[in-house]
Amino acid sequence: MSRPRVDTVRAAVASPGQPQPSAELGLTSGEYERIRDLLGRRPTDAELAIYSVMWSEHCSYKSSKVHLRRFAETAPPSPALLAGMGQNAGVVDIGQGYAVTFKIESHNHPSYVEPFQGAATGVGGIVRDILAMGARPVAVLDSLRFGPADAPDTGRVLPGVVAGISFYGNCLGLPNIGGELGFDPCYRGNPLVNALCVGVMRHQDLKLAAARGTGNKVILFGSRTGPDGIGGASVLASATFGGSDGAKRPSVQVGDPFMEKLLVECCLELYAAGLVTGIQDLGAAGVSCATTELAAGGGSGMRVELDAVPLRDPGLGPAEILMSESQERMMAVVEPGHVGQFMQICARWGVLATVIGEVTGTGRLQMTWHGEPVVDIDPGTAADQGPVYHRPVARPAAQDGLVADGPARLARPSAGPQLRATLLSLLASPGLADKSWVTEQYDRHVRGNTVLAMPEDAGVLRIDEQTGLGVALATDGNGRFCLLDPYAGAQLALAEAYRNVATTGAVPLAVTNCLNFGSPEDPGVMWQFSEAVRGLADGCAALGVPVTGGNVSFYNQTDSAAIHPTPVVGVLGVHPDVTRRVPIGLRTEGATVALLGRTGDEFGGSAWAQVAHGHCGGQPPAVDLAAERALAALLTEAAGAGLLDAAHDLSEGGLAIALAECCLAGGRGCQVTVPGDVFTQLFSESAARAVVAVRPGGEAAFAALAAGHGVPVTGLGVVRGDSLVVTGSFDISVDELAAAHRGTLRALFG
Amino acid sequence: MTARVGVITFPGSLDDVDAARAVARAGGEPVPLWHGDRDLRGLAAVVLPGGFSYGDYLRCGAIARFSPVMTELIPAARDGLPVLGICNGFQILCEAHLLPGALTRNAGLRFIDRAVRVRIEDTRTVWTGGYSPDEEITLVLKSGEGAYVADAPALARLAAAGQVVARYAGGNPNGSVGDIAGVRNEAGNVVGLMPHPEHAIDALTGPGTGGLGFFSSVLRAMVDG
Question: Residue A87's pLDDT is what?
Fold first, then answer.
């Protein structure tokens, strides 16, 4: 059988008028013309493949770039930041010579098309991002949102996504320490599957993606390249699903976590041996992305023999190899003298490694196929100089009506039995119900450093066994708040994650975000996006925590219906001593229960409005970032001083849900008296609040600390007995709370 | 002199760092063993840790059982070397026929990570000598294929010889026959356990310290031995 004819640079010069499938690859006619202008000829098929994936929304951020600049422009100065946006992941100094790198990324569309593999490879991809920074990946978190819990399609997507994360993360040996699980009709047909990975390294181990040193070898290692995921970035991640999404099924990649585990250990051994000059993971856009980014990052050139790439399917041609998103692959730049040792370490781990090219001084990315040039481009034009769009931005016409339709008209419970029933129905609602059906499928214990995990406010990991140094991580997002006011909603997501980290006793340090939105071609969506980015950037500046990196996921819509704007924010904090961590569970009989912060009548976008009335309208809770800062400072100082027995952030469902969760986690009751209107006090979702249990004997010291930080403290009662008692209203035994809380997901998903 | 306890790393082993930490916490010296090693280096005991050896894409433990280190370990275990297999290590020991029975998919077919109550029923093994008879401890179960099965004659032999080392005490989490959480060989030097004792050595990172006894027991047996 003869080899299919391959389009070469020579052929491209000779046949300028040959029609090319640029539209099918997701390029606009303007973008295609720009490629022709840059090259001074038509692109070869291989070059067209490179530009189509590198200029896709997913890789180029062409619609979001002009807005994302805000993060850098308004970033608060942070001496802790060792590497920031634009790298594979941000890197933060946590002291004692340690640095931590973390990032969150979406795998929404693949997870809808093929939930198991889509979610599994989402974990694999973010882990390689962290590995490429020179760090050992040490934990993952997953932020998941689905359509209505009882919708038939949720019954297909959710179990598949959870099983995929479980399969990949568990087999890879990374503890899953937190995240979120939410439901809303807006995610029907557009689940959000955002995976966060955190890694640890010593300062000097930081690696950057840059090909430097003429004559250095380019080595591709890990899995063979197959036809899986071809065009994933351009086709799946960058276009709206329509009626014929079945045809996109082959674009989802297939994961091999065992190979990823070998790759992780192999890379760490290669780093430790000092054999790697530059490193890049292969994620979206595969070899195209790795070669162009390495070459552009190093300001050098690169020569690649594409026919040297080891294949799983020998029928693949250059364009397909360039676009393949086969998983578990990395690319390294290695000095010629180190290649032998590099290969030995790869062989020890059973990892296939192949020299496919070398660094040149030409400034060009040149690729050949059996000796014939098929790519000859300036790598910067693909990696950094993609199109930039100033998409039209317009506040949606429906926004005023949404805001005007506030929760004031909704009937409120007032009598004790009604309040009791309201609490139990909220506690049993899928968004607030016990998540152990999901979290028990994840290994949270592997590596032996997990100090706190779900259902705690944040995951806490020990980093140094001797000193007790550790980190805390939380992710939060609230699409309902963002729908009502994307600027405030993004800040509320940030504030909640920041608060969640602080309630465990950690000092919040840095931020990553995953911005999930509808189509950027819709001016209303772009308004939501620009407002959310502005809110987040301003919020980070006010809280003194920089955005270190993240990911944008557009086109989260099926046909014309977009999801709620859903920025998911991850906050990283540092624990000087993890033995001082504060859990949410009430542990000590007689401890004083107190509410921190101010409670207003704020029900716009609340869990109560949604669960009791199916309502989402009005204004989200007011944002007070100065109060958030003071609250966090109080919580971390009180934890450090050993004054707290328990602490829990107040968010969805307000004080009522927080108290119920504290009782459930600790297996103890409490007796509280709430001042003023009981319903408002129990269910309002005012921000900048937490509930704490102060250790007996620590009351005076805690009160003094709170006064010093200007945080209002309302004494509620004490930890006592085995019921949640709200004086004058109701009491519910912990067993009854548990029955309401634990049955929901099991009943829905088996 | 501290006893040297080997911890084998197969490709895909995951809880090897944890097993080594537990050995050290109990006062022993953990020594890494590589799946390709052909020498047990005079170690006093060996732990096969949890994980997904070779990806476990075939039957769990089915490939690891043929690795070079196992060709050394199998005869040494038959000669009395103390060996503890935890989770995937237990699966490997069953595949190697050092222990009877097999581990199959959990009832419910999902991976489970959960703290479980376990009753130590046989304290005559070198790995459980430090526990009191019928002592209940809390360990971490984390597995997808943890349901212990054996045919009726094998179960009868296990019961008759008292070879069931541990049973689940607070409800059967995975469908294991007879609530069996761990078994030993006839001689008592080889023990397999589905829940992880190495994840219960410190209240900071696990459900208490109930698992440490497996590691301190074998170290004490070495000294007393």
Answer: 67
Answer yes or no: do B204 and A442 touch at CB < 8 A: no
Helix (H, G, I), strand (E, B) or coil at A28: coil
Is A744 part of a structural domain of the chain? yes
Q: Residue A596's domain spans which residues?
A: 582-750
Supply the residues of B annotated as catalytic.
Answer: 87, 196, 198
What ipTM does the predicted assembly reach?
Answer: 0.96
Minimum-distance CB partner of B21 among A443, A446, A448: A448
Residue A366: strand, helix, or coil:
strand
Sheet containing B83-86: which strands, arranged edge to edge? B29-34, B4-9, B45-48, B83-86, B190-193, B180-184, B164-168, B112-120, B136-143
Say whether pLDDT at A83 is over 80. no
Closest residue to B14, CB basis, from A173, A349, A462: A173
Determine, for residues A445 and B204 on separate chains, whether the beta-carbon distance falls below 8 Å.
Answer: no
Q: Is the pLDDT of residue A112 over 60?
A: yes
Residue A96 maps to a domain: no
pLDDT of residue A144: 98
Q: Is the pLDDT of residue A162 over 50?
A: yes
| pLDDT average, residue stretch A568-580 | 97
Q: Three-class SS of residue A473?
A: strand
The CATH code of the domain that includes A617 is 3.90.650.10
Verify whether the Cβ–Cβ distance A261 to B12 is below 8 Å: yes
Q: Which chain A residue has the Cα nearest residue B12?
A: A258
Q: In this predicted model, what pLDDT tens digit does every residue of A435-483 receive, in sequence order?
A: 999 999 999 999 999 999 999 999 999 999 999 999 999 999 999 999 9
Count of domains observed in chain B: 1
Task: Supply the range of the domain harboring residue B37.
Answer: 4-224
Residue A223, in any domain of the structure: no
Checking DSSP bridges between strand A176-183 and strand A90-95, what pairing results, if any? unpaired
Picking from A262, A462, A578, the nearest residue to B11 by CB comes out as A262
Distance from CA of A570 to the nearest CA of B (A): 23
What single DSSP character describes residue A251?
Answer: G
Query: What burial class does residue A518 get, using C-beta atoms within 10 Å of its C-beta: 0-12 exposed, 13-18 middle, 19+ buried?
Result: buried
Q: Is this prediction's pTM over 0.90?
A: yes
Mean pLDDT (whole number) for A14-35: 92
For A529-557, write each residue's pLDDT tens digit.
Answer: 999 999 999 999 999 999 998 999 999 99
- Domain of residue B114, CATH code: 3.40.50.880
Residues contacting B86, CB < 8 A, separation 6+: B15, B19, B47, B48, B49, B50, B192, B193, B196, B197, B198
A613 touches chain B (CB under 8 A): no
Q: Supply the mean pLDDT for chain A.
A: 93
Q: Is A24 on the interface with B (CB under 8 A)?
A: no
Q: How far apart are the C-alpha atoms of A131 and A330, rounded to whole Å?
A: 10
Residue A41 CB: number of other CB atoms within 10 A?
A: 17
From the centroid of its chain, how far is CA A703?
Answer: 37
Query: B152 vs chain A: nearest CA distance in angstroms?
Result: 30
Q: Percentage of chain B surpassing pLDDT 70? A: 99
> A407 and A715 in contact (C-beta within 8 Å)?
no
**Euclidean distance between CA atoms A502 and A497, whole angstroms:** 9
Q: For B66-113, write each residue's pLDDT tens digit.
A: 999 999 999 999 999 999 999 999 999 999 999 999 999 999 999 999
Q: What is the pLDDT of residue A250?
A: 52
Nearest 10 degrees: CA dihedral of B58, B59, B62, B63?
20
Long-range contacts of B60-65 (CB under 8 A, 24+ apart): B60/B88, B60/B91, B60/B92, B60/B95, B60/B103, B60/B145, B61/B88, B61/B91, B61/B92, B61/B93, B61/B94, B61/B95, B61/B96, B62/B95, B64/B10, B64/B35, B64/B88, B64/B92, B64/B95, B65/B92, B65/B95, B65/B96
Contact status of A138 with chain B (Cβ, < 8 Å):
no
